[in-house]
Amino acid sequence: QVQLQESGPGLVKPSETLSLTCTVSGGSISSYYWSWIRQPPGKGLEWIGYIYYSGSTNYNPSLKSRVTISVDTSKNQFSLKLSSVTAADTAVYYCAKTGIAAAADRPYYYYYYMDVWGKGTTVTVSS
Amino acid sequence: DIQMTQSPSSLSASVGDRVTITCRASQSISSYLNWYQQKPGKAPKLLIYAASSLQSGVPSRFSGSGSGTDFTLTISSLQPEDFATYYCQQSYSTLRFTFGPGTKVDIK
Questions:
Q1: A111, A119, A122: best mutation site toward chain B, by most B Cβ within 10 Å?
Q2: Residue range B67-95, pLDDT digits in tens
Q3: Interface contact B36-A61, CB threshold 8 A
Q4: Number of CB pairs < 8 Å for A and B?
Q5: Among all residues of chain B, which has the CA nearest to that of A115?
Q6: Is residue A83 a contact partner of residue A66, using CB atoms and an 8 Å limit?
Q7: Cβ-proximal residues to A45 (8 Å cutoff; 6+ apart), any chain
Q8: What is the separation of C-alpha B97 from the centre of its chain, rounded to a whole number of angstroms?
């Protein structure tokens, strides 16, 4: 049973870089896609981006200029860096395993879904 | 960008009620639609993927339907543990996955 655990500083100063790590246990990171999602206090969910174990990435265009997601297969971990943070980046950050299934309607297309989530970690941006 | 809307934004229901939540996409997304349940202080949980496929371990009282732009999540007989917020999410555009704003289901 795959489990995920986020870790990293709970407080980041404005203009600095937020850095989080997600440790995967109970399975190998060397398959599937791996996502980061965040949820500001009292608000909905926002997808940040995903990485494939090979290192290929896909980022939310609204965050793309500030986001880097990387993977370390030797440690079974993947990481998130978000630069130049402001108070608007205050949120609970979740990592999630992202499964895929072959699409019924389009060849070579896949359904993506976040099927295993970490418990989340709260990051506050404040001086 | 594909925008997702949900209705209602909240509803009150009783144990045993049949509950239906609607999700609408701003353009056709075929069946690239997932449903999640989130309880306060907890991570979301996947219920349905590909519009109508029940995730392993999810009770059969949950079902999803729809294709194109209009989708529904149905709880056939609401249970006490089902009071939560439900989100839809599209994966048709792999450039940007987007979530709906959520529907909160609480006790009448």
A1: A111
A2: 999 999 999 999 999 999 999 999 998 88
A3: no
A4: 71
A5: B46
A6: yes
A7: A37, A38, A39, B36, B44, B87, B89, B99, B102
A8: 15
pLDDT value for A38? 98
* Nearest residue to B11 (alpha-carbon basis) of B67, B79, B63, B84: B84
DSSP E strands: which ranges in B3-44? Answer: 4-7, 10-13, 19-25, 33-38
CB contacts of B101 in chain A (<8 Å) are: 44
- DSSP one-letter code for B82: G
- Alpha-carbon distance of A55 to A77, in angstroms, equals 12
| CB contacts, 8 Å: A33 with chain B | none
- Cβ–Cβ of B44/A112 closer than 8 Å? no
- Which residue reads 């009783």 in tokens? B14
- Whole-angstrom Cα distance, residue A54 to residue A72? 10
Q: Which residues pair with B35 in a beta bridge?
A: B48, B88
CA–CA distance, A15 with B67 (Å, rounded to integer): 43
Residues of chain B with pLDDT under 50: none
User: DSSP 3-state assignment of A107?
Assistant: coil
Query: Residue B48 in 3-state DSSP?
Result: strand
